[in-house]
Amino acid sequence: MPMVEVAGKSFEVDEEGYLINLADWDEGIAAYLAKEEKVELTPNHWEVINFLREYYSEYQIAPAIRVLTKAIGKKLGPDKGSNKYLYELFPYGPAKQACKIAGLPKPTGCI
Amino acid sequence: MAGPEFEVPKMSEYTEVPKIKEGAMAHAKSFPAAEASQTSLGFPWKLTDDWHDRAINRMGELLVKYRGLRVFMDACVHCGACTDKCHYFLGTADPKNMPVARQDLMRKVYRRYFTLPGKIVPWLVGAEDLTKETLDDWYSYYHQCSECRRCSVYCPYGIDTAEITMAGREILNTVGMGQKYTSEIIAKVFKIGNNLGLPGPALEDTLLGLEEDIEADTGVAVKLPLDVKGAEILLVTPSADFFSEPHVESLIGYAKVLHAAGASWTFSSYASEAGNFGLFNGNYETMRKVAMRIRDAALELGVKRIIVGECGHAWRIAYAFWNTLTGLGYGGNDPFSIELQKQLDPRYKQPSHICEYTWDLIQRGVLKFDKSLNDDRVITFHDSCNVARGSRMGDEPGGQFTIPRNIIRAVANNFHDMAPETIGEATFCCGGGAGILTDDLMEVRVKGALPRMNAYNAVAQEKGVNFMALICAICKAQFTKVVPYYGFDMSQIGGVHQLVSTAIKLEQD
Q1: CA B17 to chain centroid
Q2: Residues of chain A whose C-beta is under 8 A from some C-beta in B?
Q3: B434/chain A closest Cα distance in angstroms
Q4: In this structure, what CATH number is given to the domain that contains residue A30?
Q5: Residue B380, Ramachandran bin (φ over 0: left; ψ between -120 and 50: alpha; else beta)
Q6: How many domains does one find in chain A?
Q7: What is the 3-state secondary structure (H, E, C) of B310-360?
Q8: Contact predicate B81/B156, CB 8 Å
Q9: CA pair distance A30, B430, nearest whole angstrom
Q10: CATH number for region B35-183
Q11: How far apart are CA A99 and CA B72, in angstroms?
Q12: What angle do CA B255, B429, B4 make, to 5 degrees?
């Protein structure tokens, strides 16, 4: 598997750039992955990323889209609690792109 | 996720047969499966040293086990009827995506090793040795077939291309050339119980959240029960329904229908997946192992009835394969089948499709709708290939075409079909079926969607259609990702039960 080097630390990633080891993740690699995805991280992006990581550590899976939109609506206001807003933050889709930046495995299935 | 750049085909009024471009899609290579998932499936994960003999041996076994495969290898007369029927050929112009040419990648090897003329005078009969280059071609082009079987409808001999693709993928797996996407997903089903890898506690949390949403939205406490022993109905649905938009809207629709009918029902955390990717990689043991989870859950929960949610290939497997795989269905007279049959209620079709269930309730006047709530939508219906060409619904021939449309007409005022040569039995695949629904094949997916996009665009222009209703999780995921390439918004894609959900009137508790 390929390696990427960020701030003197090396990270193993898969063919699509997802982190192999969840525990390796730090804010430096998140910023690097976001740049690769052409996503400029704002505090609202970080709310999503942090929620994804919290949820994952509890349930070993990324949250379902409804769970995510509801949680973000509670944190950032009801107008932000929508699939549409999440797509504004992560244009390739919150499930895949936000998970990648958060260092989670890629959700796959019929999605 | 910046994928490789490619040119999005231009839409046209009709889908025209393109001028061929040799090798146009030879570069399309899905990511290879890695050690962990392949080991779980019982396959090697890198090319074995004895790949040549292993491949030929496996082909020999498959030719005996699936006699249809041998007939399909022998019967083709190269008449060409299939050449312009494949959405991947129409969208990519690569001649190896003509169904006959894709089949011939295997047929030339079959002739060399399994027919007398091919053994003696290979150059006279188009027979060729199996080489690593041929295997690479198989890997590329057998992952540019969505096993949709449209070509088979037009083949005068009824050659089923899907069976050849499945055999090709099975042989590739046998020599260590598995595909990452399907391999990882099947491994997750073995380990966790569904394609997404959604563990029981996450599923429970998700369902509780949805109950809150529905109650906040409607004022009615609609439940999404999980693992209820003694429930009458087990609902098995693709796990994407729990996870994704727009899938979840249909899930809410099922729950509202079951609530309005006063049904006793449950999901199962053990059988939390209707889909079965064993159909896609062509491995019978995998298909059976995945399907057995549903039998085991049904026995464990003691249900009387099994209903399948909106999932195309799941319904084909449920309708056509569950009886022999799991004893769930008709015709079984052996102890294995009888054990389940004596538990299930013989008054109902086993299994039933959620559309059959809903349509029955509509006909009996059990469900009430306010159709005007769907008035912002002008709707068309995309027939999903495995439902259209691999199954049926109801008691009449063609019920799989009429029942979903009848439901839409019962819950909405504006409906228009797409052109007849693109729907029903002749439906075009969404472009993402059978293991193609992966980001590493995005070019194949976008180009393969062209014929459907042309047909959708035509009704969008002429009739103002702005919503394509579906009953397949793969189609929903594929279209929401792909329609923006053609200038449509992803919100134009959704489920039939999403429309039901919008219009259904629930009585306040």
Answers
A1: 26
A2: 15-16, 36-38, 59-61, 63-67, 70, 83, 92-93, 95-97, 100, 107-111
A3: 10
A4: 3.30.1420
A5: beta
A6: 2
A7: CCHHHHHHHHHCHHHHHCCCCCCCCHHHHHHHCCCCCCCCCCEEHHHHHHH
A8: yes
A9: 34
A10: 1.10.1060
A11: 44
A12: 105
Please indicate whether residue A110 is annotated as part of the active site: yes
CB contact under 8 Å between A111 and B206, yes or no, is no
Interface touch A93/B481, C-beta < 8 Å: yes
Looking at the fold, whether A22 and A56 belong to one and the same domain comes out as no
CB contacts under 8 A, B 293-352 vs A, are 311
pLDDT averaged per 10 residues, chain B (length 509): 77 95 96 97 98 98 97 97 98 98 98 98 97 98 98 97 97 98 97 96 97 96 98 98 97 98 98 97 95 97 98 97 89 87 93 98 98 98 98 96 98 98 98 97 98 98 98 98 97 98 91
Q: Kindly state whether residue A80 falls inside one of the protein's structural domains.
A: yes
- Indicate the domain borders of chain B: 35-183, 185-359, 365-503
What is the amino acid identity at position A19? L
How far does the CA of residue B446 sit from the closest CA of chain A (Å)?
Answer: 15
3-state secondary structure B101-157: HHHHHHHHHHHHHHCHHHHHCHHHCCCCCCCHHHHHHHHHHCCCCCCCCHHHHHCCC
Tell me the CATH number at A77. 1.10.10.370
Distance of CA B325 to the CA centre of its chain: 18
Q: Considering only CA atoms, which of B356, B239, B351, B242 is closest in space to residue B295?
A: B351
Instruction: Provide the 3-class DSSP secondary structure of residue A60.
Output: coil
- ipTM of the complex, rounded to two decimals: 0.95
Same domain, A48 and A23: no
Q: Are B146 and B434 in contact (CB under 8 A)?
A: yes
Model confidence pLDDT, tens digit, residues A37-87: 999 999 999 999 999 999 999 999 999 999 999 999 999 999 999 999 999
Domain assignment of residue A106, yes or no: no
Residue A88 three-state SS: helix
Range of the structural domain that residue A82 is part of: 43-101
Is residue A65 within 8 A of residue B245, CB to CB? The reply is yes
Q: Are residues A14 and A52 in the same domain?
A: no
Say yes or no: A54 and A25 in one domain. no
Whether residues A49 and A87 fall in one domain: yes
**Does residue A64 sit in the same domain as residue A81?**
yes
Interchain contact, B311 vs A110, CB within 8 Å: yes
Contacts of B202 in chain A (CB under 8 A): 59-61, 63-64
Q: Among all residues of chain B, which has the CA nearest to that of A62?
A: B198
Decide if B244 touches A, using CB distance below 8 A. Answer: yes
Whether B206 sits inside 8 A of A64 (CB atoms) is yes
Instruction: Give the amino acid at B342.
Output: K
Same domain, A54 and A78: yes
Same structural domain for residues A48 and A32?
no
Q: Is residue A107 part of a domain?
A: no
Q: Specify if A110 maps to a domain.
A: no
